[in-house]
Amino acid sequence: MALQCRLSGATIQSLKMATIPISPSSSRFIFRTTPQTLNLALFSRHTPPKAPPFSVLIRALSAQAVAAAPAAEISDNKVVKPQWKAAIDFKWIRDNKEAVANNIKNRNSNAKLELVLELYDKMLNIQKEVERLRGERNNVANKMKGKLEPSERQKLVEEGKNLKEGLTTLEEDLINLRDELQLEAQCIPNMTHPDVPIGGEDSSKLRNVVGSPLSFDFPVKDHLQIGKELDLFDFDAAAEVSGSKFYYLKNEAVMLEIALVNWTLTEVMKKSFTPLTTPEIVRSSVVEKCGFQPRGENTQVYSIEDSDQCLIGTAEIPVGGIHMDSIVSESSLPLKYVAFSHCFRTEAGAAGTATRGLYRVHQFSKVEMFILCKQEESDMYHDELIKIEEDLFSSLGLHYKTLDMATGDLGAPAYRKFDVEAWMPGLGRYGEISSASNCTDYQSRRLGIRYRPSESPTTSKKGKTNQATPKFVHTLNATACAVPRMLVCLLENFQQEDGSVIIPKPLRPFMGGIEAIYPKSR
Amino acid sequence: MKGKLEPSERQKLVEEGKNLKEGLTTLEEDLINLRDELQLEAQCIPNMTHPDVPIGGEDSSKLRNVVGSPLSFDFPVKDHLQIGKELDLFDFDAAAEVSGSKFYYLKNEAVMLEIALVNWTLTEVMKKSFTPLTTPEIVRSSVVEKCGFQPRGENTQVYSIEDSDQCLIGTAEIPVGGIHMDSIVSESSLPLKYVAFSHCFRTEAGAAGTATRGLYRVHQFSKVEMFILCKQEESDMYHDELIKIEEDLFSSLGLHYKTLDMATGDLGAPAYRKFDVEAWMPGLGRYGEISSASNCTDYQSRRLGIRYRPSESPTTSKKGKTNQATPKFVHTLNATACAVPRMLVCLLENFQQEDGSVIIPKPLRPFMGGIEAIYPKSR
Q: pLDDT tens for residues A328-371?
């Protein structure tokens, strides 16, 4: 069936992009990024007993990433060895243990704070003891350098031997203790912004409302029915080829996806974000460092056979990995990225009615914003990110509300999280279309990303420059466009009585000027 | 034994029946095993070959068409890796840490160029009445096999998903081939012409040597693929149509290339005939494959179970019944409309300028906001 006929006789014009406001002769695309989380509903083995496991039915895209302990190997003496270590500030935890304990309680986390403090104390004590023994061993060694009676020498040799054995045992204990401490401490969730409401899902606070539900004077269809009638998707063939929750997009839906991605990238690039495409296969350690659990029960993460690699569930992961284990200059901050990628999620454990059609799928396209910034600026960039999102959704004419998510709904990495829920008339309720998280230094302590504050160098008398100690960056991530959820919104909100769907004006230039998707006679 | 019988006669028959039953059971088992073995062995037999295909190895492939000639440069030519580095278009180093070798991030104008290439290609091919699609990139391994690939062979190109029978696709040919699996389509619906955009994943196990630098050989890439299901007698014609579409696309972009009729030693098992297009890549100093168009006749359709019912004029018998013709297997064809990384190599290396900039081919400009070139930026 010729696609030209389907577009009401209009030939397919070259799909013009809105002019990017950068002329070739001007300065290059300087894009700096801000983050916005599209969280994954991840549940570790230690599913918090108080949290209803699948409260994420409505906000399918929220990550309840319980703090991820790194994959560890079990050694012979049953001490688990972490494959990587987060740079945890144990002293700070100890000095602020009440605040940390309250935070753990508010988030329904099962991190074991008492154990951590206990292990930390033990570790400090053993460390002291190890240092003391080393000192004594040095003394013995020094004494043995001088002239001695054979009997005296013999006594010292014995003493040295005893000290050495004791030291070896203690040093082993210290290593095991450090590993255990590290694993337990990495389960402690991020602290929480003071304004975040405490409680479960129902405690989330309304931050903003834009528009109101459209009223229809004809029976409203859901996106599945609209898609069927306009030949926009095929779930049945995909079920045979791949399994449930897979789909083909067809005809105008393909052009609509491309237009959504193109327009979103263009708009966000105007705010100085650097556009990227990313690998969709990554090492599992990177997934863990971002706060997800590839190998937990009910994991959202697909793993590749015979390898340590996984498929990404969000571009947050490969983008977070770009500056892994490095120190960036303060002048390069903020680093602002807008990344387009396909995302893969097992959706294990997701059940119920909120899984029909495009609402919950295993594979989808997403445009994600990610920011690395100075510590004192993350709250400001969080506001910037949610503003960008709200502007995008308003431009498309959607009705939505922005929520400040309560403590029980924050994933372990998130200091604060704003979710946007848009009105989906076909489903008859609000559905999450995006999420913006400020992860402060939770991810950067795991990914090892720091910056060197550029204070005015003070030169000492010898002419040396004092360099400030590097600090951990703050990272933020935010969904600019999750294509299937947007398709649900556009199809359901802009459906017409005659079965057509109006295309929002901003997207039209990116789709050859098409104004609507029309039913075609067969 | 149904009739009235003497006891001794009945007893004889019972004995005979028992013997027959035992012999039958054994033979029936043998038959099943034999059928299975026959099937496995026979499925290894490659497709037949078009009579015009040259016989021999790589060097025997026949030149079918040449368009343009190698551009001459009056300055030292850079390869795409160097150009990309200077224009900040990709990052292989960060990707090596995050994912491993042969992975990459595209940055800045390269992102817009990828989108423009995909968008323009889809638009052009849609004008020829192909239905646009996006496809699942995770598929059941049985579908991969039915298309003629071997997910679990040694040096397989296919990534498998842990704890499942699923794999990642290496080409959209696979999920598109699967759309009409196990079905009979009406003759009037043929030809079915699809143009599918997907990401593709390949292990590149066993690929070694210098032809692996940069974007030339990577584990993940974007591709626009054409796929046709048609009547048996029409596949040669559609093979010509597909290669013509490809050549028109590459000519529009100003590339210099040659089209080859691949020799028998270079055909994959499913291909009856295969045309490869190799474009001139000045930075690499040689021709590199940018696309491939195969006529798989009924090799894939016999495995995928895709048939069509010829719509002959119904003859009514005296009783008024309509005679329905026996279903036949469709022929399938597939062809690369755009393999993005190889196209990026071609565009960057061919259209580099002395000042370090890269000119964007005119057809792509409207899809990139009108940008005419990628310029070096002062830092």
A: 999 999 999 999 999 999 988 766 556 779 999 999 999 999 99
Residues of chain B numbered 98-117 and touching chain A (CB < 8 Å): 98-100, 103-109, 111-112, 114-116
Rounded CA gap, A171 and A158, in Å? 20
Closest approach of chain B CAs to the CA of A374, in angstroms?
22
Contact list, A309 vs chain B (CB under 8 Å): 99-100
Q: In 3D, which of A99, A111, A98, A62 has the Cα closest to residue A194? A: A99
User: Of residues B124, B141, B198, B202, which has the active-site annotation?
Assistant: B202
Tell whether A108 is in a known binding site: no
- Integer CA distances (angstroms), A165 to A137, A177, A269, in order: 11, 18, 62
Can you tell me the distance from the alpha carbon of B254 to that of B248, in angstroms, rounded to the nearest whole number?
Answer: 10
| H helical segments located in chain B | 7-42, 80-86, 93-98, 109-126, 141-146, 173-177, 235-252, 299-304, 340-350
CB-based contact, A522 to chain B, within 8 Å: no
Q: Kindly provide the ipTM of the predicted complex, given to two decimals.
A: 0.91
pLDDT tens figures, B70-98: 989 999 999 999 999 999 999 999 999 99
- A66 marked among binding-site residues: no
The reported pLDDT for the residue numbered A376 is 96
- B217 has catalytic annotation: yes
Residue A518's nearest CA partner among A1, A9, A15 is: A9
Q: How far apart are CA A308 and CA A304, in angstroms?
A: 7
CB-facing half-sphere around the CA of A23: CA atoms within 13 A: 2
Alpha carbon of A458: minimum distance to chain B alpha carbons (Å): 27
Q: Which member of B105, B135, B377 has the closest CB to residue A278?
A: B105
SS3 B257: strand
Peptide bond into B191 cis (omega under 30): yes
**Is A452:A470 a contact under the CB 8 Å cutoff?**
yes
First to last CA, chain A: 9
Closest CA of chain A from B117, distance in Å: 11
- Average of pLDDT values for A280-285? 97
Query: Among residues 187-206 of chain B, which lie with CB inside 8 Å of chain A?
Result: 197, 199, 201
Q: Do B136 and A322 touch (CB under 8 A)?
A: no
Q: Where are the domains of chain A?
A: 90-187, 201-453+467-517
For residue A129, what are its two tokens? Answer: 């003891």
pLDDT value, residue A59: 39
Tokens of B366: 């409207």
Measured between CA atoms, the residue of chain B closest to residue A341 is B199
Write down the CATH number for the domain with range A201-453+467-517.
3.30.930.10
Angstrom distance (rounded) from CA A323 to CA B42: 53
Q: Which CATH class is domain A90-187?
A: mainly alpha
